[in-house]
Specification:
- The chain has seven helices and 15 strands.
- It has a five-stranded mixed barrel, surrounded by four helices. A two-stranded antiparallel sheet has the order 5-6.
- Strand 14 and strand 15 form a beta hairpin.
- The longest helix is centred in the first third of the chain and has 16 residues.
């Protein structure tokens, strides 16, 4: 059955609605960044650029790096934007825009999606200026209330431990990222478990003029520990997108990993003196390993 025009929305030129991209515009390996200005920081390393597209906060460059065709795209902030980006990237490779029908299961394409972003750290032993690859992502936001995410028993237990430690009225969700990409790209980085928050201020324990419902949120998250047969896990850092990436990636069948430039340590109160360099180093490291 074909997908109605109200659900798969295409622009007049046949491109997907928000990203403004055609299927030929993307490669099978995609680097995502939050900040539109960071797209150029990635593509400046390319040997050549074949496509540049911009619409709203979604800026896309496609080109070649050491002979490999790569896409870099900005997402903006938050899992609401990740919902748009992941669904539309998947549509570009797994839905026929002419017939409006999903490709047969045996023909579906698995993208390699690599988030390169900034993050704040929860633990005092992970210094600012370092890089961290996310193993599990814990989603404190509500995106997965609208999708039938299937979690493993260990993921449910880890998420439940977070719920109980913080005193939340709801259970967060927990998703393991791509083992393949984590091993390929994360060598020498800290490996951690990332909390994805639905905001930057209150949901990350920051207070300017408003009182917080969880004024000791950081301490509660910092001391979460979950143990199973594979070991003991703690929460290491937080940001605003990774859990959405990992959950949608799992359901859509894509390999996804989140690489984090640690620019702040909330336990020690530090902020990186040269956060731009931390990000640039992570970009160069990622490109050299793809």
């Amino acid at each position: 059955m074909s997908i109605p025009a109200s659900e798969l929305i295409l622009n007049r030129d046949g491109s997907i609605y928000h990203l403004n991209l055609l299927p030929d515009h993307i490669s099978d390996t995609i680097i995502t960044v939050g900040d539109p200005d960071r797209v150029g920081l990635v593509s400046q390393h390319f040997d050549s650029i074949e496509t540049e597209v911009s619409k709203r906060e979604f800026v896309t460059h496609v080109g070649y790096y050491r002979g490999k065709r790569l896409t870099v795209i900005s997402t903006g902030i938050g899992t609401d934007n990740i919902d748009i980006v992941l669904n539309e990237l998947d549509a570009l490779v797994n839905i026929d825009f002419v017939t409006r029908q999903p490709r047969p299961l045996e023909e579906r394409i698995a993208l390699r999606i690599i988030r390169v972003g900034t993050s704040g750290c929860l633990q005092p032993d992970i210094p600012v200026g370092s890089h961290l690859v996310t193993e599990h992502a814990i989603g404190l936001e509500s995106l997965m209330q609208f999708y039938p995410l299937v979690e493993t028993g260990a993921e449910v237990e880890f998420a439940t431990a977070v719920q109980q430690a913080v005193g939340l009225d709801y259970r967060p969700y927990c998703v393991l990222g791509s083992d393949l990409l984590r091993e390929q790209l994360g060598a020498g980085m800290f490996t951690g478990n990332t909390v994805t928050c639905p905001g930057f201020y209150g949901p990350q324990g920051r207070s300017l003029r408003l009182e917080l419902r969880y004024p000791d949120l950081l301490e509660r998250l910092r001391h979460v520990q979950y143990s199973n047969a594979e070991g003991t896990f703690r929460l290491t850092n937080f940001e605003m997108e990774t859990a959405g990436y990992y959950a949608l990636g799992r359901m859509l069948g894509h390999e996804v990993v989140s690489l984090n430039a640690i620019v702040a340590n909330r336990a020690t109160g530090e902020f990186a003196e040269n956060s731009d360099q931390t990000v640039n180093d992570l970009i160069a490291k990622t490109l050299s390993r793809i």
